[in-house]
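Reading group handout, session on sequence-to-structure problems. Before we discuss, look at one worked example. The prompt was deliberately terse, the way you'd type it at a terminal:

> structure Phosphate transport system permease protein

The input record follows.
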Amino acid sequence: MTTTAPPPSAPPAPPRATRTVTRPGDRIFAGLSRGSGVFLLVVMAAIAIFLTVRAVSAISKDHTNFLTTFEWNASLTPPSFGVAVLAYGTVVSSIIAMLIAVPIAIGIALFITHYAPRRLGGLIAYIIDLLAAVPSIIYGLWGALFLVPHLRGLNLWLDKYFGWTVIFSKQDPNSAPRSLFTVGILLAIMILPIITNVSREVIRQVPKMHEEAAIALGATRWEVIRLSVLPFARSGIISASMLGLGRALGETMAVATVLSASPQLSAHLLDPVGGTFSQNIVAKFGEADEFGRNALIASGLVLFIITLLVNGAARFIIQRRKEYSGANA
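And the output record:
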């Protein structure tokens, strides 16, 4: 009995080239997104060019070193301007604010997300949101009328027990505590809601599987937070801290209301001396002549550069830490 082989099957047809169809809505959205990015770069470049042109005009006429002179006096002939005192006051008050606000903000965020009952956590989150909406001038008035009088006892206590550190020694015990230390405390209260809200949202994004795996291995609640939550949320917490630092560096009205500005550079943080860039600009811009305004704009350029350096350093830290945080897992 003979069998016949089946006829050979026809070769498969070559795949047809697929044609990607771009919808008009996609083209419009891509154009708007690209235009928004370009517009942002144009705005940043315009600000930098404006500050640089006006700053060069003032620095070229200054008879002292603009970066190291501990004086800001437009009445001299020729005028004398320097940003050393302003840079010192801005950086020191911001560091004090960060040292106070960041640990408290992280603690509040962890309490809301991992310890507090749902209703209590929601109430605390609502209060934090309200603090973020308070205008700066309100913080300044509260600081001048309430915080400053009530810090006198704390300043005397710090001078008595920690005056040997020089930082907390008070030269004049009778002077009002309108100092960089007071400004740092006020700025810490102001940036606390920003850091807390962002950190809270970042901590909530931690995968539940990470926490459940740690619990299954017998980890305590603190070990779960230390080993699973904080490593994953580290980059976001750094970003939240940098947002708070940005506000601390550029805060104006609250600092101007509380600080007794003085063109002196002192390591005694409890003395009413020093100043910040923003406070000096808002205090002297109205009465300054054209040259003085250019000098104030030059100080604003220095603050602009400091802010860019801080943000750049933050981005560098985030990129270095991101691969170890587990966020890309």
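Points for discussion. First: The chain has a mean pLDDT of 82. Second: The domain at 42-325 is CATH 1.10.3720.10 (MetI-like fold).
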